[in-house]
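Renewal narrative, Specific Aim 1. Our central claim is that a sequence can be written position by position from structural information alone. The example that follows is taken directly from our test logs and has not been curated for this report. It begins with the structure tokens describing the chain, in the order in which they were read.
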């Protein structure tokens, strides 16, 4: 999978996306519908209506990566109706989605950040 170095935010496209779109179609969707820059160091994640396939679009230096995942059984726990076109999630939450879990994991340890003490 993707290494975490150099990756900015993770944007989920809320609701279903027509995954017949390839790199150019998904990049246009990011630019026009989401009003975001597809050439930024962010991940843009799309899921189909059946929630058994997804694509991740990522710009890396001089070209796009397009990752594709198809589940043989089960469904992704995809956010469908959030009132927004995109939802920003952490890479940890993306891993949960890819593993078939929901974004809400109440038993997960919260992220702890070190405080700077002077």
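The sequence written for that structure reads:
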């Amino acid at each position: 999978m993707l290494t975490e170095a150099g990756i900015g935010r993770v944007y989920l496209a809320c609701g279903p996306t027509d995954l017949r779109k390839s790199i150019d179609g998904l990049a246009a969707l990011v630019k026009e519908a989401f009003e975001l820059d597809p050439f930024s160091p962010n991940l843009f994640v799309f899921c189909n209506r059946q929630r058994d396939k997804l694509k991740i679009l990522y710009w890396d230096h001089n070209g796009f990566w397009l990752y594709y995942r198809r589940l043989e059984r089960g469904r992704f726990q995809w956010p469908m109706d959030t009132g927004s076109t995109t939802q920003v999630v952490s890479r940890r939450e993306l891993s949960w989605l890819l593993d078939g879990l929901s974004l809400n994991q109440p038993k997960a340890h919260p992220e702890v950040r070190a405080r700077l003490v002077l």
